Amino acid sequence: MLKSLKKTDIYIIYFTAAAIILSGFLRLTGFNYSNYFFNFALLPYVVTRGLYYLTVWRKSNEKLNANAKNRLYVYIAVFITVLLSVLDFFSADFFVIFLIMVDFLLLQNKEENNE
Predict the structure, then answer these.
(1) 14 half-sphere exposure, CB direction, 13 A CA radius
(2) For 1, which DSSP code?
(3) By CB count within 10 A, which of 22, 50, 82, 90 is most buried?
């Protein structure tokens, strides 16, 4: 399996969490574009995870372990939810936050099992 960039994954999740908190403060102040900022805050997470899975897909001889498959399912759910939110079909901000928390817990579980 490709080596996961654990530190980078954790930093991306921390940055996404900080940007989500900032968008929440903007929403509380009545800023008109806070929904767009929320979706923009998820962009680094979606791009980095997408590039990782694109790299894994191109190297078809390498298999994903169970934890990586679970993270792939979480990524697909986040991507679909963000896409539908950007297209204004529905807004499920709490669901996206919940999925990112699940991804963080899967990442932490992987680190504890490796030690």
Answers:
(1) 7
(2) -
(3) 82
